[in-house]
Design goal:
The complex is a heterodimer of chains A (400) and B (316). With 400 residues, chain A is of the alpha/beta class. Helices cover 40% and strands 15% of the residues of chain A. Classes of the chains: A alpha/beta (400), B mainly alpha (316).
Chain lengths: 400, 316
């Protein structure tokens, strides 16, 4: 009897420990920004990209001698999603700058919760002679900060964090909310039930996700004031099963457009299976769900990678943080599919011009869904508020 | 709302039902196979691979079953013939199966130049369809007769296994082997053959569970990172929940499926509970079931006495 109980206990323990690991990797695998995207990141917002005529803090490097290191949390071979989007940016940079294949050192599947693995991966890049190293995941931040102090002649550039040292360690991210606003217009024009679902990776406490939902909701409201946005949270950046289940529960409620801030195509596929529509994220998901997809907010990381690597070659690297948007070409929406409603292209073009003309999305009269006044006419939210204090939902967002 | 919730619960519970039924078949013959996760992973890959290249549901399911049988064969050879420790072998099989699927999965992604996707024709074949006439009945029609074909297959297999276990001669023999292989041997039952046969069938059924995960749950897209994602382990726990009876496993998998989608159907504006609570629920329930079953001490609903111990004839 004791033996049996012991084996049960072991099984149970394994099951439990497995879920423990799962939970851990879900939070640590924070491929995009975690919760702590605070004001420091925002100071980068004013900085924009390093201006070309500034004098750099490091000596120029001959293009032939340059080596670029990239630390990926996933595997670019996955073919879609976060790491794939970053790697496409690296490939674009390689072409634009004109580097050969052996000048790019990739380290894939580097667990961002394992400081030793991160350090090993980066040190391998250093041994290969890299002069600039990009770390694409939140969890690389502290290790990169330490190594930046140990190797002052190498540039460490970190995505989505908030730390920087002003010389050889900066962070970069972008105004994806601008693209979400445009995707919201496509969704708002398409919906017939006036119910739009949103599969969110993280809850209200995550400014990045919440800001995206709010911008999406504001885009919807600009063309369809009656529509509501229904949010379901999966608490995981990458989980196709949960994302599918969340999307299906939204479809069950009568939503006929599914937006998402989640890494897989599962929500779009769920919408397609029910014969309705959706807006993906990260990469153009029209190829995955051709009958459902409208348009997706996408990243063009190549815009930053090219300018950063070029500045290292030219010796104009300044160590400023980077918070680019549509103007810099860092974020955009994927080409509209043939599923969009009539007049979508015109409406989106008009909004795009408005944004490029200085419309800040989070400006003017903003009330949250609990009735609190967030922003008043004539004012706008600072970058710090956008990246660190977006813990409210816009008035047409419903959580249920 | 409730109907939609139950419908989603059935959909989420079906892979567990496959895994649990397979594991019950294995345990009833006296072997504890902790490799369910690995066998499901291999089944998931194999069925996807075959479906991707052949567009045939039948071939995909056969492939999943076959690879499950193959994985179980590794386990059976090691534990039944070579008397290796069952727990360790099972765990190894989990690691092997996961690696196997991810290795070949990565090759498949490379070959397709991105996440491979099943054809529209195939996805239509596995989509949810209402059975004519029966599907039109209100409530019951949606709940019982509007599923994808694999749901019916899972229930049919569970019922068949129950009948086999409880109503047939060879089912009786197999249970005898599970309870006391020495006595069964003395009664003239071929212990080794019985064990092999049922471990292999059990593995095949687990493989079908994997097929469900990659063909239905994945939405027809292969991703290397989280196809099976712990469902195999939940299946092992469900065996206890179902007290080694596949018919009860139907209820058990429905309950666990319901818990896994509960978080999306509880109205957040009325009851606000952290998501982590919902994730924890199935395991909490398993713990309670364990406590209750161990208090009850019924002979029928407990683990086969010979389970987990290898039978070595010379040591009788």
């Amino acid at each position: 009897m004791f033996k049996k109980l012991l084996s049960f206990a072991l099984v149970l323990m394994m099951v439990l420990s497995l879920t423990a690991c799962k939970g851990q990797s879900a939070t640590s695998g924070t491929a995009t920004t975690g919760t702590g995207n605070t004001e420091d990141a925002a100071t980068g917002g004013d900085a924009q990209e390093p201006s070309a005529d500034a004098t750099g803090v490091l000596a120029p490097v001959a293009k032939e001698d340059l080596k670029v290191g990239v630390i990926h949390i996933g595997d670019p071979a996955d073919g879609a999603g976060y790491t794939f989007a970053h790697d496409q940016g690296i490939v674009e940079m390689q072409k634009a700058v004109g580097l050969s294949d052996n000048q790019i050192i990739r380290k894939n599947n580097v667990n961002d919760a394992d400081a030793l693995a991160i350090r090993t991966a980066i040190e391998e890049c250093l041994e290969e002679g890299c002069q600039i190293i990009f770390g694409t995941s939140w969890g690389y931040m502290d290790t990169m900060e330490q190594l930046a102090a140990e190797y002052p002649e190498v540039v460490f550039s970190h995505c989505s964090g908030y730390k920087s040292n002003g010389t050889n360690f900066n962070n970069y991210f972008g105004r994806i909310y601008q693209a979400r606003y445009l995707a919201g217009i496509a969704a708002g024009l398409k919906t017939q039930s006036d119910k739009i679902g949103f599969v969110a990776a993280m809850g209200k406490d995550n400014s990045e996700v919440t800001g995206g939902i709010n911008a999406f909701a504001m885009g919807i409201e600009s063309v369809n004031p009656d529509a509501k946005v229904y949010v379901k949270v999966t608490n995981s950046w990458f989980d196709p099963t949960l994302e599918q289940q969340a999307a299906e529960s939204l479809l069950d409620m009568g939503c006929d457009v599914i937006g998402q801030h989640a890494d897989t195509t599962a929500p779009q596929l769920a919408a397609e299976a029910r014969g309705v529509w959706g807006c993906g994220y990260n990469s153009d998901m029209t190829k995955d769900a051709p009958a459902a997809h409208l348009t997706a907010p996408v990243w063009h990381w190549g815009a930053y990678y090219t300018s950063a690597v070029q500045s290292v070659i030219d010796g104009t690297w300044t160590g400023e943080n980077y918070f680019g948007g549509m103007e810099e070409g860092l974020v955009a929406i994927s080409p509209l599919s043939e599923n969009v409603a009539e007049g979508t292209a015109e409406a989106i073009n008009a909004a795009e011009l408005k944004i490029l003309g200085g419309f800040k999305v989070f400006e003017g009269d903003i009330v949250d869904n609990e009735g609190n006044q967030i922003c008043t006419e004539g004012n706008f939210l600072s970058d710090g508020d956008i990246t660190g204090k977006m813990n409210w939902y816009y008035k047409n967002v419903v959580v249920q | 709302m409730i109907i939609n919730f139950l419908f989603a619960a059935i959909k989420a519970g079906t892979p567990l039902l496959f895994g649990t039924t397979g594991e019950i078949m294995t345990q009833k013959t006296g072997n504890l196979n902790l490799g369910v996760e690995g066998m499901m992973f291999m089944g998931a890959f194999m069925s996807f691979f075959v479906a991707y290249h052949s567009d045939s549901l039948v071939l995909a399911l056969l492939a999943a079953f076959a690879i499950g049988v193959f994985a179980a064969l590794i386990y059976a050879v090691l534990t039944v013939s070579f008397m290796a420790n069952q727990n360790v072998t099972g765990l190894t099989l989990t690691i092997f199966g996961t690696g196997f699927a991810k290795f070949f999965g990565a090759m498949m992604i490379d070959e397709a130049g991105g996440s491979p996707k099943l054809s529209g024709k195939f996805l239509k074949a596995v989509s949810e369809k209402a059975i004519p006439v029966l599907g039109d009945i209100p409530v019951v029609g949606k709940l019982l007769f509007s599923h994808n074909p694999l749901v019916y297959l899972a229930v049919a297999i569970a019922i068949l296994c129950t009948l086999y276990l409880l109503k047939t001669r060879s089912g009786l023999n197999m249970r005898a082997v599970g309870e006391n292989p020495g006595a069964a041997d003395a009664a003239g039952i071929n212990v080794t053959l019985t064990k092999y046969l049922h471990i292999l069938v059990g593995g095949g059924i687990c493989g079908l569970g994997g097929a469900y995960l990659s063909l239905i749950n994945g939405g027809g897209i292969w991703n290397n990172s989280s196809v099976v994602n712990g469902q195999g382990w939940i299946s092992v726990a469900l065996v206890i929940f179902a007290s080694w009876n596949p018919a009860k496993a139907i209820i058990g998998s429905l309950v666990f499926g319901a818990f896994s989608v509960l978080q999306f159907y509880v109205p957040k504006n009325i009851i606000e509970v952290p998501n982590a609570f919902y994730v924890m629920l199935p395991f909490l329930i398993t713990t309670f079931v364990l406590i209750i079953t161990s208090m009850r001490k019924s002979k029928e609903g407990s683990q086969p006495a010979g389970c987990g111990v290898n039978y070595f004839r010379e040591e009788r």
